[in-house]
Amino acid sequence: MNAGRYPSGVDTRGRDVLRWTIERTRRRLPRPPAQPIRGVAPDLAFLHGNRTQPAYTWIGHSSALLQMGGANLLLDPVFSRTASPFRYLGPRRHQPPGLMPEQLPHVDAVLLTHNHYDHLDRPSVRAVARQPGGAPRFYVPRGTETWFARNLPRVRGAVPYIEALDWDAVTTLDAGQGRIALHFLPVQHWSNRTGFDRNASLWGSWALVHERFRFWYSGDLGYSHEPRRIGARFGAFDAAAIAIGAYEPRWFMRSQHVNPDEAVQVMLDVGAKLAIGVHWGTFSLTDEPLDQPPRDLERALDARGIERERFVVLKHGETMRFPAGDNRTHP
Question: How many CA atoms lie within 13 A of 276 on its CB side?
């Protein structure tokens, strides 16, 4: 399978990477954060006792624990000190994870958006697979299932359950309060793990639909028509986690990462009642300071006349709790 045949696959040219590297080195970018980025102690008693209330806990960057429908879902877990194939080389973590693997409640499922190193980390998924009580299920984009089969530890002699999804495919997870539909949906981005597998696996977003709560996780994305298509298909989401960081310089990052103003438009396109900004404040990947995205997000909301409370950012380790509504009238 070659995902590069699809129109949402970004083609980043080598000479553009070289130009960007030279420019940021000459300008000594990124600059350090203007203000300290501080986390909070996670509410472990709530996270381990919660069985009924939808809640989202930011671990850092794109990693989070989502609790809905009685299930614990782990999104793009990365706990390592670098977003890199190397332990001591590559982008270093600025903030410790808001939750460590040993602090997590029992994870029912891990959901992956794509295979870049700041989203897919071998030590992290292996640590979660070894959790007490048995490994979670892994739901992954088509093309990454072989990586998981090779790299996950065997539990009682068997590889943990791995399900690979194509774009627009759906599967279900039986949770404590009924089933959750897991929809894997395309957005504009790309994939690679080595220098030889460009767009050889899929990337995407997740729409997670339970009869009482609906959530969308954007993954990484450049702005395109896909969020409008998702909004038209699903009608509305109670909440969404949308990437807001790693967007400068725009001439290079525009096609692969939205900036905060585009992230606000994505929130409107998908019909999210509330959004949480992710993909910032943890790994310094691009030219803006790590603490710049929340400030640019506030400006974007103010310019559009949208209440700041509708699109928020969390501290590492912080939990946002949502009302346990009843959305049975939604499609």
Answer: 30
3-state secondary structure the chain: CCHHHCCCECCCCHHHHHHHHHHHHHCCCCCCCCCCCCCCCCCHHHHHHCCCCCEEEEEECCEEEEEECCEEEEECCCCCCECCCCCCCCCEECCCCCCCHHHCCCCCEEECCCCCCCCCCHHHHHHHHCCCCCCCEEEEECCCHHHHHHHCCCECCECCCEEEECCCEEEEEEEECEEEEEEEECCEECCCCCCCCCCCCCCCEEEEEECCEEEEECCCCECCCHHHHHHHHHCCECEEEEECCCCCCHHHHCCCCCCHHHHHHHHHHHCECCEEEECCCCECCCCCCCCHHHHHHHHHHHHHCCCHHHEEECCCCCEEECCCCCCCCCC
Mean pLDDT of 84-92: 87
| pLDDT tens-place string over residues 1-11 | 444 445 566 77
Six-digit token string for 175: 């949770």
Checking if the pLDDT of 313 tops 70, the result is yes
Rounded to an integer, the average pLDDT of 137-159 is: 90
Place of tokens 């729409």: 207
Q: What is the pLDDT of residues 35-63, one digit of tens each?
A: 999 999 999 999 999 999 999 999 999 99
What count of residues does the chain have? 331
| Prediction pTM value | 0.94
